[in-house]
Design goal:
Largest sheet: 8 strands, mixed
Distance between the termini: 49 Å
Order of helices and strands: HEHHEHEHEHEHHEHEHEH
Number of strands: 8
Strand order of the largest sheet: 1-2-3-4-5-6-7-8
Helix content: 25-40%
Shape: globular
Radius of gyration: 18 Å
Oligomer: single chain
Strand content: 5-15%
């Protein structure tokens, strides 16, 4: 059951206000990034704002925003900026969303064309209030980009479409994005505290369904570490992903947005990330991105090219 919160309240996360404060730990040197000030960053910001679009880069306070926007890489967040869920790790605003912007699909296509993107990532908030979870809007956005920027490859990062008709997911798969991404986020044991509105095996099954319906469509998923998981649990998630046919795995460090969010259990070292990457590649993933600052869409264009090349290499 989803509890919707009155979005008129000033608090960004009203449902978290009764949670006890937890210490926001000082970040180690390998995680600190410079504030964004470049010309490229400003140009990307202007294009996004002029089209009235939201980005997960801003809403989720991504640490890579300066680097990515300088290169005109932005992850567009559709279906509004307000999520109907309240995951313990996420900084996106929660509450009762408004109506879908009727111009959003068209403007997303225009932004892709204006920025001259080779690759675009489209994500969204969860919209449990919609009958199809926003599936048709994903299709409309994909079609708009294909029409206005036909040279742009499209990666989608979708919600789980939990308790929605199977036709909802099927229509998104049939729109044939180049990459279908849905993040598992964490290990099964931590779902109740970290991702209470979701179900681990439902999310896994969603990605498996993509491969069953369109075997040539690339699938991708990611997890955060530093939430209290064990190495053995992470490796089990890798095995589950491979059993579902997932091609691309991302692993990044969880960073606590505020004192009301889930605390960081520990900062995983760069050396540990390298170990995770080696293990994942040995398990058969086409592409692995594992580092403290890895996020779902970080270096997505270059990683997509490498993933395609890896598939062709296996086929030859």
């Amino acid at each position: 059951m989803v509890t919707l919160i009155d979005n008129s309240r000033a608090l960004r996360h009203p449902e978290k206000q009764k949670r006890p404060d937890s210490e926001v730990k000082r970040k180690p040197d390998w995680i600190r990034v410079k504030a964004p000030v470049s010309k490229g960053y400003a140009e990307t910001k202007n294009i996004v704002k002029s089209k009235g679009l939201a980005t997960v880069c801003e809403e989720a306070a991504c640490p890579n925003i300066g680097e990515c926007w300088d290169k005109k890489h932005a992850t567009i967040m559709i279906l509004g900026d307000t999520c109907t869920r309240a995951c313990a790790f996420c900084n996106v605003k929660t509450g009762l969303p408004g109506a879908i912007d009727p111009h959003e699909a068209e403007n997303t296509g225009k932004a892709a064309a204006e920025m001259g993107l080779n690759h675009i990532v489209i994500t969204s908030v969860d919209r449990d209030d919609l009958d199809d979870g926003g599936a048709q809007h994903f299709v409309d956005v994909i079609e708009s980009i294909r029409r206005q920027s036909p040279g742009t490859t499209i990666e989608i990062l979708t919600p789980d479409f939990l308790r929605k008709p199977k036709e909802a997911v099927e229509k998104v798969i049939d729109a044939k994005p180049d990459v279908f991404n849905h993040n598992l986020e964490t290990v099964p044991r931590l779902y109740l505290s970290i991702r209470p509105g979701a179900r681990y095996f439902h999310s896994l099954r969603l990605l498996e369904k993509v491969k069953e319906r369109d075997p040539n469509q690339f699938t991708k998923s990611g997890i955060m570490v530093g939430l209290g998981e064990t190495k053995e649990e992470v490796m089990q998630v890798m095995d589950d992903m491979r059993s579902a046919g997932i091609d691309f795995l991302t692993i990044g460090q969880y960073l606590q947005p505020t004192r009301k969010h889930a605390p960081v259990d520990r900062f995983v070292t760069p050396e540990e990330f390298k170990t995770y990457e080696s293990i994942a590649r040995a398990k058969g993933f086409l592409m692995v991105s594992a580092s403290p600052l890895t996020r779902s869409s970080y270096h997505a264009d270059a990683d997509f090219a490498q993933m395609k090349a890896a598939r062709e290499g296996r086929r030859s």
